Amino acid sequence: MQYAHITGWGKCVPPATLTNHDLSTFMDTSDEWIKPRTGISKRHISHVNTSELATVAAKRALDCAGIEGKDLDLIILATASPDTLIPNIASTVQAEVGATCGAFDINAACSGFLYGLGLGNSMIQSGQYKRVLVVGAERLSFYLDWSRRETAVLFGDGAGAVVLEASEQQGGIMGYELNNDPAGRDILASGFGTQMDRFEADSLDFYINLNGQEVFKRAIHGMGTLSKKVLEKCELTKEDVDLVIPHQANERIIDTLISRMKIDKEKAFVNIAEYGNTSAATIPIAICDALDQGRIQPGQTILSCAFGAGLTSAAVLLKW
Ligand code: ACO
Predict the structure, then answer these.
(1) Using CA atoms, how far apart are residues 269 and 265, in angstroms rounded to an integer?
(2) Where is the active site (predicted)?
(3) Helix residue ranges, H only, the chain
(4) Which of 35, 81, 260, 261 is the most buried (most CB within 10 A)?
(5) What is the pTM of this model?
(6) Which among 169, 196, 213 is the end of a domain?
(7) How far apart are CA 209 and CA 207, in angstroms?
(8) What are the tens digits of pLDDT across the range 90-110?
């Protein structure tokens, strides 16, 4: 039996930031509105494309694992904000790290990185591959209408990556659950793509739109349901969980989720104040930060869950 262990990790967040106060200088908003409702204090904004952020995170993860690009068997890149629709941007990362393997993008929005971990885990457990790079990367600032305060304050840019390696030693990814609720496709959407009428400038709906209160309710339900399912599948209970790394969309969503699951609040990792919602990148960035802060220790059981447009949801349970 092969187990998929995380052996390397890395992140890339652009140096430029916009604080809540900065936003209030050009938009009718304030730190007093944003911080208590979302937990966000600032967000990092990139002047380079998603693939550049992804490449830096990928190189750091490879260095951390002590392997080179040529050692990889597969690259999975989760993003909802690729530089180009074709070619996929996993191929850009592949070229930059010098890998000769399969490489593809997946779009499961904010759940994308956990979808990627699940896929990578299955590829390794099947015995097909030994080393898989999973990246979550976004440049959502490009897809925001900066005159719409309802959405512009919520998101940020960044990337994170992990190396999954096969080992016969029990542990690593213990299980995962994926779901999608198509009835909620319209509550979180961007019209970018063929739904844009290219001849009618007025119908251009390029930017991200969301029904925040519906997203809020469904996020808690989606992440809660799949977290319970993955724990049951692995024959564990919430008492066995040492750390929860949830998707960072809103601190109040995380608080409500943790309290409904009756998990000790101290066990939730939260770094949304620094980055805002970086969609597919929130979880790999949080893994890097949790490691830097000593919050992840060998032998711990970690539950990670996410929710995003689609409406996708995902939960992964792993032994560090
Ligand atoms: N600054 C100041 N005022 C604002 C802002 C802003 N940035 N945005 C909205 N408002 C105003 C509205 O215009 C409205 O004013 P009105 O009462 O005069 O009409 C008022 O604040 C309340 O607006 P609501 O949208 O009802 O605010 P709510 O309390 O629901 O908070 C929020 C909005 C933070 C988005 C909340 O719904 C939420 O947390 N939703 C879930 C998280 C989410 O959607 N994240 C996005 C990504 S989803 C994902 O990652 C899966």
Answers:
(1) 9
(2) 110, 247, 277
(3) 20-24, 31-38, 50-65, 90-97, 112-125, 149-152, 212-233, 251-260, 272-275, 282-292
(4) 81
(5) 0.95
(6) 169
(7) 6
(8) 999 999 999 999 999 999 999
